Amino acid sequence: MKNPLEGRRREIGMKSIVFVLWILIALVVPLSLDDSIALRSVPDAFSASNRSLPRLMATEQEVRGFFNEYIERYNKMDTEGFLWLFSLKAKQNQWDGLPEIRKIYSDFSSR
Fold it and tell me: For the chain, which residues make up each domain, given as ranges?
């Protein structure tokens, strides 16, 4: 007579072996990647060889140009031109989106 638990033990044993193999693979594979980004130091990641990365900040000249344009359009009450400078994700008072901001400035400029 065949033991019904014998098949269950084999199934659990195979699952355990597969699990251990996956763990070993997960531990060994990163070691085989010599030039992996995860293994690079911070100074290497930002070295001079990575000059193709885009700047994250605007220059002083770009900021001054933006604010000059912003002030000029605001003073002319050019609502559409003024709002063109806003992001589509703009928020005012942590609530109003671009349509609400457009209505506020349109109402203000029509006075």
Answer: 4-49, 60-109
List the chain pLDDT tens, one digit each, 111 residues. 566 656 666 667 777 787 777 777 777 666 555 555 545 555 555 555 556 667 778 889 999 999 999 899 989 888 888 888 888 888 888 888 888 888 888 888 887
Residue 69, token pair as written in the block: 């344009």
Query: Quick check: helix, strand or coil at residue 56?
Result: coil
φ, ψ for residue 50 (rounded to 5)? -100, 40
As given in the structure block, the two tokens for residue 66 are 């933006």
Q: How far apart are CA 74 and CA 77, in angstroms?
A: 5
**Residue 69 CB partners (closer than 8 Å, separation 6+):** 85
Q: 82: Cβ–Cβ under 8 A, 6 or more apart, which residues?
A: 70, 73, 74, 105
pTM: 0.45
